[in-house]
UniProtKB/TrEMBL annotation:
The lineage of its organism: Bacteria, Pseudomonadati, Pseudomonadota, Alphaproteobacteria, Acetobacterales. PANTHER family: MEMBRANE COMPONENT OF ABC TRANSPORTER YHHJ-RELATED, MULTIDRUG ABC TRANSPORTER PERMEASE YBHS-RELATED. It comes from Sediminicoccus rosea. It is a multi-pass membrane protein. Its main location: membrane. Pfam families: ABC2_membrane_2. The chain crosses the membrane at residues 12-39, 51-74, 95-119, 131-149, 161-182, 219-237. Keywords: Cell membrane, Membrane, Transmembrane, Transmembrane helix. It is found in: Cell membrane. Coiled coil: none annotated. This is ABC transporter permease subunit. The keyword 4Fe-4S does not apply.
Length: 243
């Protein structure tokens, strides 16, 4: 793990060496706050909790996370530095894990900076902070799932715009798979596929966390999901390296 952590530290520092970090965090904080207090009907609900915030996060990450992942490998390929990286005494898998951990840590920082929302609900009422904590854990896992998908797609192309669009489309499939529109259609046409769609829905998996329920099944899902896409990312890089 030491080589992977070395890559992670380098990549994490690189985020803050450019305006990328500031732009991403500002957009994320503004949108999350605006959606929570406007479309989420925070004050109209009459409850001091962060359910509106957590309900928007999977859809907010749907666009913001691909903005992070589009440069992970596409930029390396465009600049030709991917060959240099893969000639270092590290495996492709270690490089993949390192870049993923850096991006995941960055998402953790962005989530942590929403702490004013937690302070606000505690000032307005007496929320269950344990439920809020598990909700944040669910958001963190959703970010990891989207990052793994986006990173694998970024390794396919050297064009960042294409990587972004494909990552949004890929993440959308897993976000919308459990929506009522999709499941009702599949239930009437392909009942078996409806169950598969519910099982693969990332946005559905966060519901338990927002209720304060930590399920081992959900943890296994996210761990398997992330591991699978990191494996796909590694295979793609090995293939490109062989070429």
């Amino acid at each position: 793990m030491r080589p992977a952590l070395t890559v992670a530290r380098r990549e994490f520092a690189a985020y803050f060496a450019t305006p990328v970090a500031t732009v991403f965090i500002v957009i994320f904080l503004v949108l999350s706050g605006a959606l929570t207090f406007t479309l989420g009907g925070f004050f109209g609900r009459g409850q001091a909790d962060l359910i509106p915030f957590f309900s928007f996060i999977p859809w907010l990450f749907l666009f913001l996370v691909p903005a992070l992942t589009m440069r992970l490998w596409a930029e390396e390929r465009r600049l030709g530095t991917i060959e240099l990286l893969l000639t270092l005494p590290i495996t492709a898998g270690q490089a993949v894990v390192g870049k993923f951990l850096a991006a995941w840590a960055f998402c953790a920082v962005a989530l942590a900076l929403t702490f004013p929302l937690v302070i606000t609900v505690n000032l307005l009422g007496e929320p269950d902070n344990g439920v809020i904590l598990t909700g944040y854990l669910g958001c963190f896992l959703v970010a990891g799932a989207y990052l793994a998908v986006g990173a694998a797609i970024s390794a396919v192309t050297r064009n960042q715009v294409i990587a972004f669009v494909l990552a949004v489309a890929g993440c959308f499939l897993f976000a919308a798979a459990g929506s009522p529109v999709v499941t009702e259609f599949l239930s009437s046409q392909f009942p078996v596929l409806a169950e598969v769609a519910r099982g693969m829905s990332v946005s559905e998996r966060i519901n338990g966390f927002t209720r304060g329920v930590i399920s081992a099944r959900d943890f296994v899902f996210f761990a398997s999901f992330i591991a699978f896409w990191l494996f796909v990312n590694t295979v793609i890089l090995e293939h490109k390296k062989a070429d």
